[in-house]
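[job 0412] stage=fold_complex status=start
inputs:
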Amino acid sequence: MSSRAVVLLSGGLDSATTLAIARDKGCACYALSFDYGQRHRAELKAAAKVATSLGAIAHKIISLDLKSIGGSALTDMSIAVPEHETSGIPITYVPARNTVFLSLALGWAEVLGAENIYIGVNAVDYSGYPDCRPEFIAAFEVMANLATKVAVEGNPIRIVTPLIDMSKQDIIETGVRLGVDFTITTSCYQVDGEGRACGLCESCRIRKSGFKEAGLKDPTRYL
Amino acid sequence: MSSRAVVLLSGGLDSATTLAIARDKGCACYALSFDYGQRHRAELKAAAKVATSLGAIAHKIISLDLKSIGGSALTDMSIAVPEHETSGIPITYVPARNTVFLSLALGWAEVLGAENIYIGVNAVDYSGYPDCRPEFIAAFEVMANLATKVAVEGNPIRIVTPLIDMSKQDIIETGVRLGVDFTITTSCYQVDGEGRACGLCESCRIRKSGFKEAGLKDPTRYL
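[job 0412] stage=fold_complex status=done
writing structure:
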């Protein structure tokens, strides 16, 4: 049996490339997305397309109400998404989001007998979210291997972060090489129901400059 | 301002005592429960009563579909709950459940500015679940303090486990001393809609012997 991987898939550029990398490593991939009350829920349509396009064995969307916790411009509609640079950790940070997502991926990995959890976090061209840093990922992996039956029984789980040290340009170039169709991905925090991006939020700005630096035409559909 | 605590509250005996302890320490308590597709969903009614009875400032129930992951007799109705002792980690273990619950508690704690997360795990009279052990809790705390904005900004979060070294008898005696009304708690994995316990599952067996050892009348309503 080939190695199995649960791959966190938002529908954006990074997670699509991460899925392509996991497949390229020979993993049987199980894509996992969350319907968590996000403002940019249209990303779930993109995630479904990406999962199919990159040959995921399954694509699961878990419903989870992070709106009831709030505290972020992505889950509280009364907080505006910034359309220019801000200092510090941005208001688009969702409290404990990657911890929650990785925890649910851990549960599914345990049921599937998957040895790997892939997550497209990146600590170069990123927004300064604390749960995208390598020290967080390393600590999560230690915790995961104390949390689960499979690990206690001798089958450790690895948290794999292939993008961690890549620039946005590297990520885009790797995705292109591995056959990712970026036209079906969505990065925008304010994407509309038609899949059109605002072009102004931080996620759009980072994506735009990535395509520019890679010398590629930006395939994003903007409002 | 008194110290704030998010308290994981299942509606059972342990989490009720944990809430009473957090209150006794002077914390303003925010109780958190999960509607996660559990077989014994009637425990949520008990949790609401316990939260009110012990003066929680708020009681939040987050919806979360762990049924879609399955892998446990508590979330997959086709797997029977064992009614006699089994060896190893029991089939009632829910993959990564405490990791997921603590992660969501972490998100809420961050939004509230709560310094403490209380969880009633116990490593004495327990079922051998890996995510009830002190080494798991310690690793979660390390991870949590790398995951969050508040921690990165210098306000660490503590995971508090007041029951970790107590026997079931100790827990019951502590609860009684702190005014917990055990008649409103529910421990049974197969509790019916009327709140009546099976008396046969492991959770019932541990609870029964706890009352016996404490020399107290068991207030549980059995089928």
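[job 0412] summary: Chain B has a mean pLDDT of 93.
[job 0412] exit 0
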